[in-house]
Write a structure and sequence with these properties.
- The chain is globular.
- α2 runs parallel beside α6, α3 crosses α7 and α4 packs parallel to α7.
- A 6-stranded mixed sheet has the order 4-3-5-2-1-6, with helices on both faces.
- By secondary structure, it is α/β, with parallel strands linked by helices.
Length: 294
């Protein structure tokens, strides 16, 4: 599903408050989310990268001593989207791009072979097909993906980090508008491939709804960039547009940030830290030493 690519849009319409609770099954052991140290060719530590997740169940205690140590040393927090607490602004950014009149029904936007899967997903999550009205296909895909969330957006790791760091010390890699523009610029054929991939991932996730969050908690991130486990990344055009291409643009910007005096903590969705197209690999190819420390 979409959160495997670390987009926070699945939580746009349901920002709930969280309370303290006992750890859910699968989260009782000590946490070890992915944390990397980035050093310049000369050996000096220039910054860090931390893999986030945009929603978690109540009761998950994920903060670690290693992360606390990095937070005490970092001068900047670098995130995908900075204004996650501006719910009205996020909704407006979405609404400004998401609607075009006279859209065909959602069922007509998927191949005949998976129309039954779409109907099953809608029934499983009590979704009325009319919910998608005049939504463009990419917007319908992101809206559908929100129903697969197994946690609360208020428990999101990026949201927690943003609450701890002053705004003037926070930098965003994309921002809400530019992130949504990535989807809005997809050709219609690729938007329909995205919708089909979301349906496939939701169908797969129903078999083990907590797997992604549990893997994130334990630091098991390599499968996130594996086409065998993500229908989105198995599509070459979607992989380039939504993952590999974005990572290369981010890497270029991070090289500029790392070359300055302030040392950043780069906190992005954990999928962006995995695989040969992930940020650690891209920075290593640019001469940095990237070492996993958690």
């Amino acid at each position: 599903m979409i959160r495997r690519l670390a987009f926070p849009w699945a939580a746009l319409l349901a920002l709930a408050a969280c309370g303290k609770a006992d750890p859910p099954p699968g989260f009782e052991t000590p946490p070890s989310p992915a944390l990397f140290e980035v050093s310049a060719p000369g050996g000096a530590v220039e910054g860090w990268m931390f893999g986030t997740i945009h929603s978690l169940p109540d009761g998950v205690d994920w903060e670690t001593e290693a992360l606390e140590g990095v937070l005490s040393r970092a001068d900047l927090l670098v995130v995908e989207v900075r204004d996650l607490d501006d719910a009205s602004g996020l909704r407006k950014a979405f609404a400004d791009r998401a609607y075009t009149a006279d859209q065909p029904p959602l069922a007509e936007k998927v191949p005949d072979a998976i129309r039954g899967d779409l109907l099953a997903v809608l029934a499983e999550h009590d979704i009325i097909a009319d919910r998608f009205g005049d939504m463009e296909t990419w917007a319908a895909a992101l809206t559908l993906a929100q129903y697969a969330e197994t946690g609360e957006a208020a428990n999101g790791v990026d949201r927690t980090l943003l609450a701890r760091i002053p705004r003037e010390k926070t930098v965003e890699l994309e921002g809400a508008a530019r992130q949504l523009d990535v989807f809005d610029r997809l050709p219609e054929a690729e938007q329909r491939d995205l919708l089909a991939a979301v349906i496939a991932n939701m169908t797969r996730q129903d078999q083990d709804p907590m797997r992604h969050a549990a893997d994130w908690y334990a630091g098991r991130i390599e499968h996130l960039a594996d086409p065998a486990t993500s229908a989105i990344l198995a599509d070459a055009e979607l992989r380039e547009a939504l993952y590999a291409g974005r990572n290369r643009r981010w890497a270029d910007r991070l090289v500029a940030l790392l070359g300055r005096e302030p040392r950043p903590l780069v906190a992005v969705g954990s999928a962006h830290l995995a695989g040969e197209d992930g940020l650690p690999a891209l920075l290593a190819a640019r001469g940095y030493t990237v070492r996993r420390i958690q």
